[in-house]
Design goal:
two-stranded antiparallel ribbon, alpha+beta, Pemi-like Protein 1, Chain: D, elongated, 94 residues
Length: 94
């Protein structure tokens, strides 16, 4: 549970090198206030104004998102195939 007193905190952080990537470290009290530990998974969002949101995500949520993406991708592929078949049928009629 997030403690209300910690909902709005600011800190200046430095981007550091982590292996071949870059990363930002966060203070321990951030993790403690939202009950996260090393190794937990987070989902990140960003917008074109430079805002970044980091949200905890469970393995169950990851699996659901993966399944929904697979279903969406499958639907899009089927829709594309149907459109291609319809286009071929239209070409034959002409």
């Amino acid at each position: 549970m997030i403690k209300k007193s910690n909902l709005t905190r600011k800190s200046i952080r430095k981007i550091v090198q982590v292996g071949n990537s870059s990363g930002i470290t966060l203070p321990v009290d951030y993790f403690e206030s939202i009950e996260l530990e090393r190794g937990d998974k987070v989902e990140t969002f960003y917008d074109y104004e430079g805002n970044i949101l980091i949200k905890p995500i469970s393995d169950k949520e990851i699996l659901e998102k993966f399944r929904n993406k697979e279903a969406s991708d499958s639907f899009q592929n089927e829709k594309k195939e149907m459109n291609e078949q319809n286009e071929k049928g239209t070409e034959r009629e002409q």
